[in-house]
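I am writing to request your help with a piece of structural work I have in hand. A protein sequence and the structure tokens that stand for its backbone fold form the material at issue. Please examine both parts with care and let me know of anything in them that strikes you as inconsistent. The record follows directly beneath this note.
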Amino acid sequence: MSRNPEASVEINASLDVVWRVMLDTASYAEWNPFVVRADCAEPRVGEPIVLHVRWANGKGTRSPERISVLEAPSTQDDGTTRATLAYVFEGWPAKLGLVRGTRFQRLTQPPGGPTTYETVEEFTGPMVKYAGPGRVAEGFRRHAQALKERAESLTT
């Protein structure tokens, strides 16, 4: 089992549509089975975001985070469009130096192709194995699939 949980999925929607769904934190309850609520005044670097997570067993937890990267969609010289959202875990385990984590969510879309969504939590610290990287990975897979379904449903 990896200490850095990850998931990815190809989405048949434009990167701009997927990006809008990702930043519409007020609507997470409508489609996201993993992050069932995200409290965030406005997605901006430096802003806090509190994630209300639901594990596969139905139990939940609250995860205080801070947005660290918000790279809006931009098209590269080769025509590929990319965007990145990342946030840093700020709960007590992080404050005590036991478990630190940064979750990256990256979007890539080649010209005329589907959007690829990739997410990874980069964990460090002596207590990472107790943070449940396996259950986080399972949640990321549910999140990715739901993001795909939501974005594709908004594509005409």
About this structure: The first strand starts at residue 6 and ends at 11. Helices lie at 15-23, 28-31, 92-95, 133-153. The chain has one domain: 6-153. The chain has a mean pLDDT of 95.
